[in-house]
Amino acid sequence: MPALPPLPEVCRLSATTIRILAGNPSSFTLQGTNTYLVGTGPSRLLIDTGEGRPSWLSALQRTLASESATVTTAILTHWHHDHVGGVSQLLSICPNTKIYKAEPASGTDQLDIHDGQRFQVEGAAVTAYHTPGHTTDHMVLVLEGEDAMFTGDNVLGHGTAVFEDLETYVDSLDRMRGLFSGRAYPGHGPVIEDGRAKVAEYIAHRRGREEQVVATLRTGGDVSPTPTSSSATNLGSTPMELVKIIYRDVPEGLHPAAARGVVQILKKLEAEGKAVVDGQDRWRLVTTDRSAL
């Protein structure tokens, strides 16, 4: 990925939304995790809490002071540390905040979120939707007044997202596409002005990657349900071998993450009866010999 454009630590994105960076830039978090302060009155909604870095807490405190506001509700889009790690820091300055998260962590005071739940503060209202795939507990939030969506890590401002389950993830993207028509406020990276188009782009990208995996496997030869001499000698490809071909223009440091995505594609193909794997994690396509038809 080319060098990313800098983002300001604190930026007002609209009349109701302020983005505060979590102060944790990296190759996986981009310019850092985005946290969002939502509303216009003295009681605000916070979406995600970053990792709890001192710079984030300081920026949040300055922003709340300038807005003469406090946080009364916080919503965590999913369980990853760079989105939930700042909860204790938030509570240190806003101790009465109610923390909401789907599938709440045990031993905490977190409150569960149900699909379609609505949260309202002065000047803004959001509705939460369960959109698993990146993680099982992933939620997105639609900002009613702007017809915008806080997409969490399902859709990013740069590049593409990783996921735990490909089919579930694509189903969630398809659902997201029908829930809004305005901006996307991602968990990482800049605002996406045409959010719905970006979601559609993500769906097309995932389908394209699957086609690339199939095409790359095909160049190594197919294996039929009853192997012939030619198919039996095909050694197949490991996920990392596929990555080195398909993602050859991507820095090697990102190849392990890409390999996890390739494994998800391979498992999907296996479930559909289109691929098989041996004990050495070598994958091959399955074809049916129709020459006798």
From TrEMBL:
The keyword tRNA processing is annotated on this UniProt entry: no
Pfam families for the chain: Lactamase_B (PF00753), WHD_BLACT (PF17778)
Domain of life of the organism encoding this protein: Eukaryota
Cofactors: Zn(2+)
GO-annotated molecular function: hydrolase activity; metal ion binding
InterPro entries: LACTB2-like_MBL-fold (IPR047921), LACTB2_WH (IPR041516), Metallo-B-lactamas (IPR001279), RibonucZ/Hydroxyglut_hydro (IPR036866), Sec-metab_biosynth-thioest (IPR050662), WH-like_DNA-bd_sf (IPR036388)
UniProt keywords, alphabetically: Hydrolase, Metal-binding, Zinc
GO biological process, one term: secondary metabolite biosynthetic process
Matches recorded under Gene3D superfamilies: Ribonuclease Z/Hydroxyacylglutathione hydrolase-like (3.60.15.10), Winged helix-like DNA-binding domain superfamily/Winged helix DNA-binding domain (1.10.10.10)
Residues in Metallo-beta-lactamase domain copies: 32-188
Family indicated by similarity: Belongs to the metallo-beta-lactamase superfamily. Glyoxalase II family.
Protein name as it appears in the record: Beta-lactamase-like protein
